[in-house]
């Protein structure tokens, strides 16, 4: 079967306009009510069965055709970010302090474009589940959907997710087998001492000095407790303490970010942070309270599904448009939770407009609408090839 091409995506102007409408009305995680309404209305108009309510504002569109019993899941995230937009675009955010600075408006429009073309072509044998996920940025919407029973309600043989990348050449699809994005953990260390007058530190137990020692000791974890063959990052992102030059404060707070790929390394780093904080604080006569939160898991792609997607991208767009990442990225992505439960892969589509495009989460970022057509075509291609009649 010859796969679809980008110019076969129907009603492209509608989806570009829809993307700009979503951009004008951004909604952050778990608040995507208007966005979810639009998604549901669009899907219903194409003939999809629509389910709502997973992760509060999630939407799943299901379409079956033929007699095949295989199913594929295709996912787009919908949420915006709490950032004040500076694009100056005529369709810029009308909600102060919120904007689509990561392109999820484009992801949503792209998957809807794929939805319409899939429904019109009916060129597959099985079931397509289109996953419109809320709250990727901060609240783990994917984890919520999985824990609330997504795969029980919508069993899939494979799941695929895509993200735009303004740092990659336009139209280049980029893949990686195995780990592609890191786990992210957050830790807040509160050091409590005995405050007093800055002129008599000998009568105090200074939490600032203890915190400084903790910060320096944390730098040894990756160098001395993690193999040089593994990847990890421990970042001290903030230190808060004190209000005046003549006061020894009562408390100091250290905020730490941790990125890992391997579960064992993740365990080691958590244990070492706790041990170092407690021991260093005690050595200065202080106490330490550690609030350690495991956030997103690492995003681990499955080999067979990654090869399937890479080969299809090369067939559809040319070998020069299907590349591999040479190494994983330290950023994180909650599509990990879909991949923890089901084979699949997460990949990137280059959307660069020029050499100096604003990066994700920048107040001047704006999704490249020209990427809707190739992105939608690839989603359609994935579904049609995966659910090709006679394929098992």
UniProtKB/TrEMBL annotation:
Gene3D superfamilies: 3.30.70.360, Zn peptidases (3.40.630.10)
GO molecular function, one term: N-acetyldiaminopimelate deacetylase activity
Cofactor: binding comment: The Mn(2+) ion enhances activity.
UniProt superkingdom: Bacteria
Alphabetical GO biological process terms: diaminopimelate biosynthetic process
CDD domains assigned to the protein according to its UniProt record, in alphabetical order: M20_Acy1-like
Alphabetized UniProt keyword annotations: Hydrolase, Manganese, Metal-binding
Keyword Hydrolase in record: yes
Protein name: Hippurate hydrolase
Gene source species: Rhodobacter maris
């Amino acid at each position: 079967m010859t796969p679809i091409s980008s110019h076969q995506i129907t009603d492209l102007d509608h989806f570009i306009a829809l993307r700009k409408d979503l951009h004008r009305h951004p909604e952050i995680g778990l608040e995507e009510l208007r966005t979810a309404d639009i998604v549901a209305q669009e899907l219903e108009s194409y003939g999809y069965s629509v389910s709502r309510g997973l992760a509060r504002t999630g939407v799943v569109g299901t379409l079956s055709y033929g007699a095949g019993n295989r199913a594929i899941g295709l996912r787009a995230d919908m949420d915006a970010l709490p950032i004040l937009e500076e694009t100056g675009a005529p369709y810029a955010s009308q909600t102060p302090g919120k904007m689509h600075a990561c392109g999820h408006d484009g992801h949503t429009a792209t998957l809807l474009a794929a939805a319409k073309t899939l429904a019109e072509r009916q060129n597959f044998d099985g079931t397509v589940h289109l996953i419109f996920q809320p709250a990727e940025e901060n609240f783990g919407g994917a984890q919520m959907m999985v824990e609330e029973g997504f795969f029980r309600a919508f069993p899939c043989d494979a799941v695929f997710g895509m993200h735009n990348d303004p740092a990659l050449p336009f139209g280049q699809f980029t893949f990686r087998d195995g780990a592609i994005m890191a786990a992210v953990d957050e830790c807040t260390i509160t050091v409590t001492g005995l405050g007093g007058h800055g002129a008599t530190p000998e009568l105090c137990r200074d939490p600032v000095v203890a915190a400084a020692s903790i910060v320096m000791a944390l730098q040894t974890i990756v160098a001395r407790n993690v193999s040089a063959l593994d990847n990890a990052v421990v970042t001290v992102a903030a230190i808060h303490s004190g209000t005046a030059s003549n006061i020894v404060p009562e408390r100091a707070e250290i905020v730490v970010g941790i990125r890992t790929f391997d579960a064992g390394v993740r365990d080691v780093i958590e244990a070492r942070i706790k041990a170092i904080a407690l021991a260093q604080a005690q050595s200065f006569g202080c106490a330490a309270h550690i609030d350690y939160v495991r956030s997103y898991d690492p995003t681990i792609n499955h080999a067979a599904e990654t090869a399937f997607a890479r080969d299809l991208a090369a067939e559809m767009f040319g070998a020069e448009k299907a590349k591999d990442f040479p190494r994983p990225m330290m950023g994180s992505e909650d599509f990990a939770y879909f991949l923890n439960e089901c084979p699949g892969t997460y990949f990137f589509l280059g959307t660069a407009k020029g050499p100096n495009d604003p990066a994700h989460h920048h107040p001047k970022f704006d999704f490249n609408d020209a990427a809707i057509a190739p992105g939608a075509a690839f989603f359609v291609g994935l579904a049609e090839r995966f659910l090709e009649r006679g394929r098992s």
